[in-house]
Amino acid sequence: MERPSLVVAGQPLMPRADALTRLMSEALDAGFLTNGGVLHQRLESEMQGLLGAPGRLVSSGTMALMLALRMGGLPEGAEIVTTPLTFAATVQAIRWCGFRPIFADVDPVTLTLCPRAAEAAITPRTAAILPVHFLGHICDVAAFDDLARRRGLWLVYDAAHAFGQTVHDRSVASFGDLSAFSLHATKLMHSAEGGAVAGPAADVEQLARLRNFGLQGGRMTQHGTNAKMSECNAAMGLAVLPLLPAEIAARDALRAAYDAALQDIPGVTPLAAQPGVRPGLIYYSLMLPPPKRMRLLAALAEGGILARDHFPLLSGQGTCLPDARIVTVSGEPVAPSLAPRLISLPFHGKVTGDDVARIAAITRKVAETADP
Ligand code: T4K
């Protein structure tokens, strides 16, 4: 039997080659390939409009997190309270800045950092909180704003999964002190590699210095790095921009199609929509019991569909993060039992109605087959 062509989870939005070439030729004509070229400036201004907050472009979402943490002026070795249910970049950024991640438990419904557990994790060494809008589920922003204000903590959101989302019509970038966005190819809005820091506390002059070696007037005045975005990446970003409205419409329709096709499959729970929150644009995720989840991943792969087993729990990951402690307010943490139940389905404009029907049929078969 002929195999259907691959349907992958994170297919990037691909601009036309001629659109990219036209943009790149502007950079070539201007004679600047990086260090704040014309394309970079244009994309930066567009991004601030899209995010509804002042901000700066950087070379990746990881760099965005690091700069956002550095903007807090936190003491060396400070503790940062965060979630164990996220991608490696969240804690790698904390560690690469010389800070210490302290894990607190997540809310069992939204899968995002629980504000009460985060408060229980605060010690005299805590300087910041770093919640993650995980899989497009938006954190309890009101509770975190209140917590950060009461305890005098820097509040950075990892918004890598939340581009384009709003809470009661307010951009996610408007909450906390700063938010870090990823513009990696697997995100909706992307520049192949790239990121952005934005938010109410975005001192854009200082962010521009931090991403450029901490230089001011040619002199090193602060703890900077090289986090600049090149003109090649900015060209990609600008070429992707006009494709966003159609892609967003396609993803909204795909979410509705998945919801309808998967709604009554026993033991399979698509992540619930949040009241007042514009649904996520990067992931469509399900929860199901761990043995079935592994069988579903294998059955989908057999059918030419590459779903993702997002995301392994970060606490206790070998020598890198040996401390498996997760602070809770009562009893056992829930995060370790949630991580092995999560799966993200292909979620982009090239997924067809037939693909959804096939994915639903495979999911139903796995769900209804008795465990061996
Ligand atoms: N915070 C959070 C919560 C994050 O999830 C991330 C990144 C960050 C911070 C940091 O942002 P960045 O520093 O990365 O900007 C991907 C991405 O590299 C990473 O950006 C992302 N999160 C993470 C969740 O996933 P991989 O290693 O899982 O991607 P890969 O190569 O396995 O590709 C995924 C799927 O997409 C596959 O089915 C293949 C397909 N694909 C991928 C690429 C890159 C394509 O079809 N074409 C492509 O060009 O990391």
Write up what this structure looks like.
With 372 residues, this protein is an alpha/beta fold. The chain folds into two domains: 17-240, Aspartate Aminotransferase, domain 2; 244-368, Aspartate Aminotransferase, domain 1 (Alpha-Beta Complex), CATH 3.90.1150.10. It is 36% helix and 14% strand. The protein is built from twelve helices and 16 strands. It has helices spanning 17-30, 38-51, 61-70, 88-96, 115-120, 141-151, 204-210, 231-240, 244-262, 290-302, 335-338, 353-368, and strands at 7-8, 55-58, 79-82, 100-103, 126-130, 154-158, 166-167, 170-171, 178-182, 195-198, 215-216, 219-220, 269-270, 284-287, 305-306, 342-345. The protein has a seven-stranded mixed sheet, sandwiched between helices. The protein has a three-stranded antiparallel sheet with strand order 13-14-16, covered by helices on one side. Helix 1 packs antiparallel against helix 8 (231-240), helix 2 (38-51) crosses helix 8 and helix 3 packs across helix 4. The two termini are 27 Å apart. 46% of the residues are buried. Bound molecules: ligand T4K.
Summarize the structure.
By secondary structure, this protein is α/β, with parallel strands linked by helices.
What's the arrangement of secondary structure elements?
Blueprint: E1 7-8, H1 17-30, H2 38-51, E2 55-58, H3 61-70, E3 79-82, H4 88-96, E4 100-103, H5 115-120, E5 126-130, H6 141-151, E6 154-158, E7 166-167, E8 170-171, E9 178-182, E10 195-198, H7 204-210, E11 215-216, E12 219-220, H8 231-240, H9 244-262, E13 269-270, E14 284-287, H10 290-302, E15 305-306, H11 335-338, E16 342-345, H12 353-368
Parallel strand pairs: 1-15, 3-4, 3-5, 5-6, 6-9
Antiparallel strand pairs: 2-10, 7-8, 9-10, 11-12, 13-14, 14-16
Helix pairs in contact: 1-8, 2-8, 3-4, 9-12, 10-12
